[in-house]
Amino acid sequence: MIKLIVGLGNPGAEYAATRHNAGFWFIDQLAHKAGATLRGERRFHGAYAKVRLHGEEIHLLQPQTFMNRSGLSVVAVAQFFKILPQSILVVHDELDLPPGVAKLKLGGGSGGHNGLKDISAHLSTQQYWRLRIGIGHPRDLIPEGARAGAKPDVVNFVLKPPRKEEQQLIDAATDKSLAVMPLIVSGEMERAMMQLHRA
């Protein structure tokens, strides 16, 4: 069963609306639904709240370490509350999924995502759950004829706000993901995946 839900992003007002903060947005929505407010916890290097979600006690976390040091915050909470990696769900932006799509999976590589890379290093395993919220890829914005030699600027892309139509799709994917949270927190991951991936 999931005990800790981590949303990835970068702290600070200048990053708040950027694509890389899709994980933060998700946690904000969860906390709002639970009637909770995340507060800065120095020992956890993050903004943290303990909530009751669909009848289960869940720890919510937004690391405040900047993306590439997210593992420091995750491992601090996991060790303090004795939470195993398989009971952790990390919510993050996903370049390889288009806006409007969200996918749930256990384990796997980092796909070049520095937040996941650091979490895997700190937990000494890749076997934790991920909720991947599609933000699209900058290569899709390069005109068809110019694609051959063009190199997409991924860093610039993830650190910019989505366009209005993309934001609407990302919000829709977040809503679809929130709809399967009762299944996720009760450990019914197969059902959650079927419902989410079908939506």
From TrEMBL:
- The active site consists of H20 (proton acceptor)
Where tRNA is bound, by residue? Y15, F66, N68, N114
E.C. no: 3.1.1.29
- Single GO term (MF): peptidyl-tRNA hydrolase activity
Site entry (Discriminates between blocked and unblocked aminoacyl-tRNA), positions: N10
Q: Name one GO cellular component term.
A: cytoplasm
UniProt keywords (A-Z) are: Cytoplasm, Hydrolase, RNA-binding, tRNA-binding
Catalyzed chemical reaction(s) = an N-acyl-L-alpha-aminoacyl-tRNA + H2O = an N-acyl-L-amino acid + a tRNA + H(+)
Q: Which class of enzymes does this protein belong to? A: hydrolase
In this UniProt entry, which residues are annotated as the site Stabilizes the basic form of H active site to accept a proton? D93
GO biological process: what's one of them? rescue of stalled ribosome
Q: Where is the protein localized?
A: Cytoplasm
Q: Does the keyword Nucleotide-binding apply?
A: no
Q: Matching Pfam families, A to Z?
A: Pept_tRNA_hydro
Physiological role = Catalyzes the release of premature peptidyl moieties from peptidyl-tRNA molecules trapped in stalled 50S ribosomal subunits, and thus maintains levels of free tRNAs and 50S ribosomes. Hydrolyzes ribosome-free peptidyl-tRNAs (with 1 or more amino acids incorporated), which drop off the ribosome during protein synthesis, or as a result of ribosome stalling.
Q: Which family does it belong to?
A: Belongs to the PTH family.
What is the annotated quaternary arrangement, including any partners? Monomer.
Q: Which PANTHER family match?
A: PEPTIDYL-TRNA HYDROLASE
Q: What is this protein called?
A: Peptidyl-tRNA hydrolase
Organism annotation:
Mycetohabitans endofungorum
Q: Report which gene this protein is encoded by.
A: pth
